[in-house]
What does this fold into?
Amino acid sequence: MKMIKEYLLSVCVVYTILALTKVLIEGIGGKTDPYYIMNFGILFVITCYAAFILFMHRIFHKVPLLFVMIGQYVLVIGGVMAGIFIMSKFMEVSPAAYRDMFIQITLPYIVFAGIYYISYFREIKKANEIIKAIKEIS
It folds into this structure.
């Protein structure tokens, strides 16, 4: 249950930050998006997918973390690119859609994965200190 709450909290926070950033950038630039509603829906789906992939690291605790992080990024970017490919079969997509999504996924992914793993390492360090203190008492 705790993991589900953490997942939902992560999705809500990340989606809110990304949505507000999108609105601010468009407001400052004076640009309006003709696919506004659809883009927010896609943003939500991508956020849920990326957060799910990021939370899967707990399953692979015996695999070196660097490989897990690289694998997660490949899964996220691959899933998004596959989604664009599938969408292009049903609707018109921008000629620069793949490049734009690569940039729009990579930069936030690096930031949010970095924040996630830094907090994860802090939790591990704190748990190790507690274990060490318990062993010293015993």
